[in-house]
Amino acid sequence: MRSTIPPEPKRASLTVAGRRLSFLDFGGPGRPLLALHGHFGEGRTFAHLARELRNSWRIIAPDQRGHGLSDRSPDFSRAGYVEDAAAVLQHLGFHRAVVLGHSLGGVNAYQLAARFPRLVDALIVEDIGAEVDGDLSFSLAWPHRAPSRSELLEGLGTSARYLMDAVREFPDGWGLAFDPKDMNASQQELNGDHWNDWLASACPALLVRGSRSTVLSTEHAKDMATRRPHCRLMELPAGHTVHETVPDKFAAAVNEFLGSL
Fold first, then answer.
1. Does any domain span residue 32?
2. Per-residue confidence at 8, pLDDT binned at 50, 70, 90?
3. pTM for the whole thing?
4. Residue 28: phi, psi to the nearest 5?
5. Full domain range(s) for residue 232
6. Are 64 and 84 spatial neighbours (Cβ–Cβ below 8 Å)?
7. Which of 229, 250, 248, 225 lies closest to 240 in space, CA to CA?
């Protein structure tokens, strides 16, 4: 009797400009889908989506620079993130892929389509706009290390529930798999007007907004969908992290869009 339990993803890495860039390959016989997480996240945030799509799509989910098991970088520029994403696809020999991104990863996704259009068949952008003005300075108050996991979670306060995947034990105590100073530098580079990049590509696109999002307004999302050709807007009952709050609804929306390609 064949098992219905999907295999564990394979952890692999490549070297980009002397840095390790780690990624998860969820395998399968399907077409490639590159999934890019947001700030504070890592590739395994897309494990549920990968399970739901495993019969038709092969999910590749990097830990983007400064996150997860990937090395830190002195550079958190827009070009740096985009070149990393392109490097992963080229490393795996993928000439084209669908690219999905949440928040930071969403901007990286549509900028990849703008700057490397031949690599991107379609876009799925989760809860981020063409204009970004975020502030992650609150993370600078989080503890760097704590004697125990429970004390770290206590120090993280209400933010802990969003950071469980990033909790790690280090030789000098418990901490997070990223440096908040890096995240703040990255956010500053992310802030700005990216309309030219959003409108630069014409491949099919799905824009997903959380109905309770404080990051992407209804008006801005509608404007993005109206101004870009071949773009579909979908709103789901969630905040900013749609793929985590309503994972089944998110996977169904993604699957429906992919089926239309």
1. yes
2. confident
3. 0.96
4. 105, 165
5. 10-134+180-259
6. yes
7. 250
